Amino acid sequence: MHRRQKLPQSGGSQMSHRCTATATEPHGxxxxxxxxxxxxxxxxxxxxxxxxxxxxxLTQEAVxxxxxxxxxxxxxxxxxxxxxxxxxxxxxxxxxxxSLDYLYGLTGVDRPLAYADLAEMLTRRAFSDGxxxxxxxxxxxxxxxxxxLAIRRRAAAQEQxxxxxxxxxxxxxxxxxxxxxxxxxxxxxxxxNVAFDGVALDVGAPTLLVQLGEFGSSGDxxxxxxxxxxxxxxxxxxxxxxxxxxxxLVLYSSGPPEYRSxxxxxxxxxxxxxxxxxxxxxxxxxxxxxxxxATLAAPSVRRMVDPLSEVLx
Length: 313
Hints:
By secondary structure, the protein is of the alpha/beta class. The chain has helices at 38-41, 60-71, 82-91, 111-128, 146-157, 171-175, 191-195, 227-238, 307-312, and strands spanning 16-18, 30-32, 44-49, 76-80, 97-99, 132-137, 163-165, 187-190, 207-210, 247-253, 261-267, 281-284.
């Protein structure tokens, strides 16, 4: 682990120090106080968006961040939930990732409090303890991620800068299975907002309700434990605005290793008949809208092609 030294203070004089770090950077050199080694001053916090699920969805920037942590494990502390860990380990074998699955199993602790605790821990590790921290998240860090929001707000309150590595959001894969015309807009809500907060929808526009299994009891993206409760409450709430036979589309992933975009079309009255994974979504077509928007689209074809083999064939 990197060892920090207390530097002598001087009113504008060019004091020098020798950094004792042994990382790959040339930290051992004598440097003037004004350009002292950044690693000696503080750590850093980087939030890495890994995309929805598959390795080909990662950006080059995200891959480089993972590879840097593998190359210098003593300088980096990497954290992630189960689904994020699996993807990162496939891209960067040997990456040491600390599990955060405990967040989903804390008895009597609601999710906002757990996220606040996570934000406190990660910012402390980076800005007080001086570690370089990578926090791995699925999808985009800025899209329906309350934990990232808590981290950003806490870092801002401490006047500390963090690095965001953006990732492909899940929305692209969800829209792969629907025919959204865009003619009447699109509403986007957390399923929790409708089921438990009583948010009313605009029945004249299609709506995407995300994370049907949110507040499940583990970090596994395919966990279905809490979805029946959510689905039952969501069905009852939607029945106040939509007829029982209104078509809805349940959209989800098949999980590893292929992570296919799956979907099924059902009547609203049957919404709670079958549990769904954590990151399932519900497409609610508008009342009186085009029939096309109530149709389940066929999945796009995934074909991994080696360009060299194409040329040689």
